[in-house]
Specification:
Blueprint (H helix, E strand, L loop, with lengths): L2 H17 L6 E3 L8 E5 L3 E6 L16 E2 L8 E8 L3 E11 L3 H12 L6 E5 L12 H5 L14 E8 L2 E9 L6 E11 L6
Antiparallel strand pairs: 1-2, 2-3, 3-5, 4-6, 5-6, 6-10, 7-8, 8-9, 9-10
């Protein structure tokens, strides 16, 4: 789920970490072997990359009874932040499983997303479509509304709220072969020279 977003973001972090001179990376000692993070602070910017993501960090509540998705093959949660004078970028992605049908999860998050604006419902064949974001000053002033991509059909329901540079997305699909559903909570926020992250 959202692997393409996470992969591109991690690549951006690696480039940013190399480009930020000053203090060396401050690798935080994990509280447990599963909590890992990297914080880099310098005079030109700050970087945070960690698996310290949860529903709360996406700005949404956790669906009752949901569990963090257990999958050894991929990262199921990431919290990425880059903050400089020129731009800022925040990405939080968390994947969960639920024993409830997708329709119940959809109804729950459709209601919870309303506090951020009009909820757009899209359909696709798989999770992880591209999330468009713009970080230069001109694009930040003209942040575009979100829209459905492709032919808008498929088993995955994506609930979207916001604009390209400040968006909340919940992607829900049937948990094939296991019953219930699987879903991803995603928060993306970017800014140019102005604004907060």
């Amino acid at each position: 789920m959202f692997r393409s977003i996470v992969s591109r973001s991690i690549l951006a972090v690696a480039c940013a970490a190399v480009a930020i001179p000053g203090s060396p990376a401050q690798d935080q000692k994990p509280a447990s072997s599963q909590d890992k993070k990297l914080d880099v602070r310098s005079s030109v910017g700050d970087l945070h990359l960690g698996d310290d993501a949860d529903a709360r960090r996406t700005g949404l509540p956790l669906y009752p009874g949901a569990r963090l998705k257990a999958d050894d093959k991929s990262q199921n949660k990431v919290n990425l932040g880059i903050l400089t004078e020129a731009f800022g970028f925040k990405l939080v992605v968390v994947n969960y499983d639920s024993d409830d049908a997708p329709s119940k999860v959809i109804d729950f998050y459709r209601d919870k997303l309303k506090k951020y604006g009009k909820v757009l419902e899209c359909h696709s064949q798989k999770h992880g479509g591209d999330v468009d974001v713009h970080t230069d000053d001109e694009d930040s002033k003209k942040s575009k509304e979100l829209k459905c991509e492709g032919d808008n059909t498929g088993p995955v329901t994506e609930l979207k709220v916001g604009t390209e540079d400040n968006q909340h997305v919940v992607a829900i699909e049937p948990n094939n072969g296991h019953g219930g559903s699987t879903f991803a909570l995603v928060y993306v926020h970017t800014r140019g020279k102005q604004g907060d992250i």
